[in-house]
Amino acid sequence: MTPIVVQGVCKNFGALQALDGISFAVEAGEIFGLLGSNGSGKSTLLRILSLLIAPSRGTISMLGRQVQKKDSSLLRQMGVVFDQTPHYEHLTGFENAWFFARAYEVGDTEIESRLRHFFTALDLWERRDDLVGIYSHGMKRKLALIEALAHHPRVILLDEPSLGLDYHSRMSLYQLLQERVQSGSSIIMATNDVHEARLLCDRVALMRKGRILAVETPDALIGSLGGYAILEMRLDRPIPFDLLKGVPGIAQSEATVRENGSYGIRILARDDPRILPTLLAEITPHASLIGLDIKRPDLGDVMLRFGGGADAS
Fold first, then answer.
1. Which of 9, 28, 153, 263 sits at a 20 to 30 Å CA gap from 184?
2. Which domains does the chain possess?
């Protein structure tokens, strides 16, 4: 039995179509990434999967049955973290986590050891008896993750799970997620972090404007850019951006401004030595080149190739 099957899911908010025909499946013991820029539909999809809102069309099967809103028996087998997670701020961190674990029917004999494990892993054990009202944003984020994982859910839905965490806590979170995967949980994780997606995800769905453009392993997606190179050019001033549109061999380009005030252009181009002289001939009448790096593509460049870097909302 495939734990999660999504078929033709659409979601409309009035005239806005947030999701347009989303289909994929997630196996047991798999981390499935939703990778896309803001406004691509990742969070809307997670809210449908977590039964907070209903799809306009399409079907979802989870743990062997059709998903219906307010399915309490299914919700008890899910762990969910969104960007904002409410807590009882007049209770301690441990009391909050204990309450959620009991609500998910974790037995009294298991609660103490499980919570100790998660609080310790996320470096929150020493602050377990502090009121949540004085927790920092990062500490509240850790607590939300503990509340989502402590009942050992079979389905885990995470929206930007490492947002607000320091490096050590991120690495600890990744280890906790791997523990759940090894126990057979299915994880769907929305992220904007291409490095996190490549490190954690078995497969990644590239999303843009409510659609899935591709589903593959991170390495296969990067391999699809075979024959391309990334040119990162640093200039002393900006150039007219449409200047590069007619240059043969360029797949995508984007402009950046660096901290030192220099201007940058990141170009995904065919791996052809003749392209660089052509680019310089177009650019140097307008700006001076002060630096150039050439590197292999990564997942961020895959997003750029599919147009994922263009969304903003």
1. 9
2. 4-222 (3.40.50.300), 227-296 (3.30.70.1150)
What is the SS3 assignment for 44-94? HHHHHHCCCCCCCEEEEEECCEECCCCCHHHHCCEEEECCCCCCCCCCEHH
**Alpha helices by DSSP H, 104-252:** 108-121, 137-149, 167-182, 194-200, 218-223
Q: How far is CA 224 from the centre of its chain?
A: 20
Entry pTM: 0.81
- How far out from the chain centre does Cα 162 lie? 9
Question: Phi/psi zone of residue 63: left (φ > 0), alpha (ψ -120 to 50 degrees), beta?
Answer: left
Residue 159 has which token pair? Answer: 């929206």
- Encode the chain (313 residues) as per-residue pLDDT tens digits: 899 999 999 999 999 999 999 999 999 999 999 999 888 999 999 999 999 999 999 999 999 999 877 788 899 999 999 988 889 999 999 999 999 999 999 998 899 999 999 999 999 999 999 999 999 999 999 999 999 999 999 999 999 999 889 999 999 999 999 999 999 999 999 998 888 999 999 999 999 999 999 999 998 998 888 788 889 999 998 888 678 887 888 888 888 776 667 788 888 888 888 888 888 888 989 999 999 998 888 888 888 777 654 332 2
